[in-house]
């Protein structure tokens, strides 16, 4: 096995579902934040990406994608069920998102979580060069930093959590809370989206493990583990460039015509997930139609919701409820040739997404809780014309950086209705000023700035050299 000086460890490999017989694979911009964010960074970077190829059974042999060597980790059916669908997505995911759905606890899920984390750590130990940097991603792999450190004390280990890190009252509900914290503390740098998350982590290190901790570092035996906030971003240049392309603008015009040339278009783009507030948003929209504040023909909602994690009953149920509500709204308010909601479950390529962002008068991003939310940032990057309003949940990490958005508490249905109307009725000059301020922020904080901040904090000696590779355009 060839070794690398930069190793990324994430639950999934960033590849499409169809492998050619020779093992070649397509690099996928899957509808999901982690691979969207890392794609533009790593495309031209000599690195190894360790992850699951997305199907149970033996790991397939995979060809490199661009400069990135893919190193698949096998997972059995049972492990997929207990590790991925179970501990990661039915225990940790809901708990980390304010327990908006009840977290589920099963003791046998922990065994699979530990076993799979160990397998990932062993794979990383094998492919990391002496003195390499290993960058572990997200809540599926919280034990990897510590397991890897035991195997390879020479490597630098970074951990980044893409989702929120909850307050101690919630985290302490976890039966394996101490092991999870110790797992993360195997890293040299633990990064979060928001400063509040780093604060929560420090508090837990003190109260649960009795360690000496501040919001910037934790002392573990004779080591210092640094912690901090590194709000993730997007490839701003890519999205703003796409959104100015003549074919994309023509497509946006075509989309508006296909929608029946309504006066206003509301767009929402989410993974189908109960954290994204899709049901609350649909309900607010229905009530505005009932109240006569909005009228079909004048206003239309385009809701994109790509299903995933469908092995989990809760996700299948959510999809059923969303589809029932869409059908209800269209049944009650639609007319032949004039739908109230256009509902799409397909993944789109980047130009189509850019066209959707350009057609939106309001982009509605109203999660109940979200680590960051890249869709909000993509919309801002796409609006070089400074038109369009962003309706943004206070509970998305992005709200901290984009205070000029129309901020809303999605749990407050009346507030949601009121703020959606405000965004729809915004004065163009006001909307343009808000958009300009948000664009200014993004301009200085794109995905490369994020990688730069993280990697130089992780390694002040070799960081700059890695950075030159990772952040090259
Ligand atoms: P996600 O929960 O997946 O990410 P988000 O940040 O919005 O949420 O990223 C979704 C990505 O998928 C976006 O880049 C979007 O363009 C893309 N996408 C959505 N629908 C699509 C479709 N139909 N076709 C193609 N692409 C689509 C997690 C956390 C977030 C955090 C990110 C990154 O939950 O809070 O922002 O990781 O850290």
Could you name the key traits of this structure?
473 residues; alpha/beta; Rossmann fold; 2 domains; nine-stranded mixed β-sheet; six-stranded parallel β-sheet; 15 strands; globular; binds adenosine-5'-diphosphate-glucose
CATH topology of the largest domain: Rossmann fold
Unreliable stretches covering 5 or more consecutive residues: none
Number of DSSP-assigned strands: 15
Alpha-carbon distance between the two ends: 29 Å
Oligomerization status of the protein chains? single chain
Largest sheet: 9 strands, mixed
Strands across the major sheet, in which order?
Answer: 3-2-1-4-5-6-9-8-7
Estimate nothing, just give the exact number of structural domains. 2
Radius of gyration of CA atoms, rounded to a whole number: 22 Å
Strand content: 15-25%
User: Strand pairing plus helix content: what structural class?
Assistant: alpha/beta
């Amino acid at each position: 096995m060839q070794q690398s000086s930069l190793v990324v460890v994430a639950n999934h490999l960033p590849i499409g579902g169809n492998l050619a017989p020779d093992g070649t694979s397509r690099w996928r911009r899957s509808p999901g934040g982690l691979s969207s964010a890392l794609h533009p960074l790593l495309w031209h970077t000599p690195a190894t990406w360790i992850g699951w190829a997305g199907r149970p059974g033996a790991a397939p042999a995979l060809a490199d994608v661009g400069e990135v060597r893919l190193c698949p980790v096998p997972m059995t059916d049972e492990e997929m069920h207990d590790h991925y669908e179970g501990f990661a997505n039915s225990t940790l995911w809901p708990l980390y998102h304010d327990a908006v759905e009840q977290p589920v606890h099963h003791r046998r899920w922990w065994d699979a979580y530990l076993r799979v984390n160990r397998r990932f750590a062993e794979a990383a130990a094998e492919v990391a060069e002496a003195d390499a940097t290993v960058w572990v991603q997200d809540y599926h792999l919280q034990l990897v930093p510590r397991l890897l450190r035991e195997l390879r004390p020479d490597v630098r280990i970074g951990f980044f959590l893409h989702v929120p890190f909850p307050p101690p009252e919630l985290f302490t509900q976890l039966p394996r809370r101490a092991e999870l914290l110790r797992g993360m503390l195997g890293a040299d740098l633990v990064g979060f989206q928001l400063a509040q998350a780093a604060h929560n982590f420090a508090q837990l290190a003190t109260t649960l493990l009795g360690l000496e901790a501040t919001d910037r570092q934790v002392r573990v035996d004779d080591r210092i583990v640094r912690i901090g906030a590194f709000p993730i971003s997007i490839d701003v240049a890519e999205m703003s460039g796409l959104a100015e392309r003549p074919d994309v603008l023509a497509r946006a015009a075509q989309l508006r015509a296909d929608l029946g040339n309504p006066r206003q278009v509301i767009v929402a783009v989410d993974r189908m997930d109960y954290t994204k507030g899709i049901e609350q948003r649909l309900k607010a929209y229905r009530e505005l139609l009932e109240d006569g504040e909005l009228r079909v023909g004048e206003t239309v909602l385009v809701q994109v919701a790509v299903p995933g994690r469908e092995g989990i009953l809760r996700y299948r149920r959510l999809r059923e409820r969303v589809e029932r509500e869409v059908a209800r709204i269209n049944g009650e308010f639609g007319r032949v040739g004039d739908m109230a909601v256009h509902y799409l479950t397909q993944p789109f390529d980047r130009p189509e997404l850019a066209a959707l962002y350009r057609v939106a008068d309001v982009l509605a991003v109203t999660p109940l809780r979200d680590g960051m939310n890249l869709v909000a940032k993509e919309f801002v990057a796409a609006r070089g014309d400074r038109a369009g309003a962003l309706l943004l949940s206070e509970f998305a990490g992005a709200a901290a950086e984009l205070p000029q958005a129309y901020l809303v508490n999605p749990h407050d249905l009346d507030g949601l209705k009121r703020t959606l109307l405000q965004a729809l009725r915004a004065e163009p000059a006001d909307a343009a000023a808000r958009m300009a301020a948000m664009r200014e922020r993004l301009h200085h904080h794109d995905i490369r700035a994020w990688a730069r901040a993280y990697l130089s904090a992780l390694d002040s000696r070799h960081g700059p050299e890695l950075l030159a590779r990772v952040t090259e355009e």
